[in-house]
Amino acid sequence: MSKIQDTEVRWGILGVGNVCEVKSAPAMNLVLNSKIEAVMRRSEEKVKDYAERHGVSKWYTSATDLINDPEVNAIYIATPPNAHLELAKLAAAAGKPVYVEKPMARTHAECMEMIEVCEKANVPLYVAYYRRELPHFLKIKELIEAGVLGTIRTVHINLKQTLKPQVISHVETNWRIDPQIAGGGYFFDLASHQLDLMDFFFGKITHAYGFASNQAKTYEAEDIVTGSFVFDSGVLGSGNWCFTTSANAEIDETIIYGSKGNIRFATFGKGEFELDTDEKGIETFSFELPKHIQEPLIKTIVGDLLGTATCKSTGISGARANWAMDQLVKARV
Questions:
Q1: CATH classification at residue 218
Q2: Given CB 3.0 to 4.6 Å as the disulfide criterion, which of 116, 124, 137, 237 pairs with 97?
Q3: Residue 34's beta-bridge partner residues?
Q4: CB 149 within 8 Å of CB 301
Q5: What is the pLDDT of residue 168?
Q6: How many Cβ atoms from other residues are within 10 Å of residue 169's Cβ?
Q7: Does position 227 have pLDDT exceeding 80, yes or no?
Q8: Residue 2: pLDDT above 80?
Q9: Count: domains in the chain
Q10: Domain holding 120: CATH number?
């Protein structure tokens, strides 16, 4: 059943910043039965420049004006997280489906309010956890479900990065490390992708406990988080995230351990992973990633709205990543 009363999804985009340059928005003009109708940014100079460079005929400096544009029938919220709840409310009140950037909001409570307003307005709510539709992660899920690893025992996430010079010099203007805007620091920005991906592989996290600290004291948000979690499926997990390590300690590695083998991959790397089983030893898989990384997910959203496909990244699933993050940073030491 179609979720909009049209044969084409005509997007209105709120907040055409960096994510809309290559990752997301251009794909909306490439997916069948989808196009960008209008864009909005508070700076007239910046929104006009974006519209001209990307061939968009309409632009606004007011979110309300864009949402109320009668030609716009779906809203993409590409602003920082602090505006997600307010803008989702406005879109829902206008009866228009919502696609929101990740993390879904600053807190799980805000996520639940977004879900509630969209359900009351009977409009779909999607979240930009696009890794659920990337080819190498779909292959990993396929291997897990086919029993190639045997019974899954545990998963370990290890993400460590250096404190970049540009972070130090732009602390006051970097919204990703301002808890009032982002909900937390780089943990909220990056671990949200990882925890959602684990949800995709193993089901929802039912228990999570962790510790967060600000060791370097360069900015207000946490810069290190460690924790453990339990999935509804019975799989146990752990994670270690630190954003102030030495350069030689940098790592982006997740390892899934099963009774017959393991898989290791980088969440933010190339479209490849390594499978190591007792039966066959080490095998390497490599997939080409799309130029516009959100295109496969946007394709499912368009299909979901038009009644031809199902999207796997919804407000319900997206909120679960926020819940897990809230639990993991609850104990500040």
A1: 3.30.360.10
A2: 124
A3: 9
A4: no
A5: 80
A6: 10
A7: yes
A8: no
A9: 2
A10: 3.40.50.720
pLDDT at site 1 = 56
Residue 328 located in a structural domain: no
Number of Cβ within 10 Å of residue 65's Cβ equals 13
Residue 266's nearest CA partner among 251, 279, 281, 256 is: 251
Judge if 167 and 86 occupy the same domain.
no
Residue 217's region, left for phi above 0, alpha for psi from -120 to 50, else beta, is left
Give the three-state DSSP class for 57: coil
| Per-residue pLDDT reduced to its tens digit, 25-81 | 999 999 999 999 999 999 999 999 999 999 999 999 999 999 999 999 999 999 999
E strand or H helix that includes residue 273: strand 272-277
E strand or H helix at 37: strand 34-40
CB 163 within 8 A of CB 199: no
d(CA 225, CA 8): 43
Under DSSP, is residue 308 helix (H, G, I), strand (E, B) or coil? coil
Q: What is the pLDDT of residues 131-174, one digit of tens each?
A: 999 999 999 999 999 999 999 999 999 999 999 888 887 888 89
Sheet holding 74-77, edge to edge: 58-60, 34-40, 9-14, 74-77, 98-100, 125-127
Alpha helices in the chain (DSSP H): 25-28, 44-54, 63-67, 84-93, 108-121, 135-145, 165-169, 179-182, 186, 192-202, 295-306, 315-328
CB 92 within 8 A of CB 117: yes
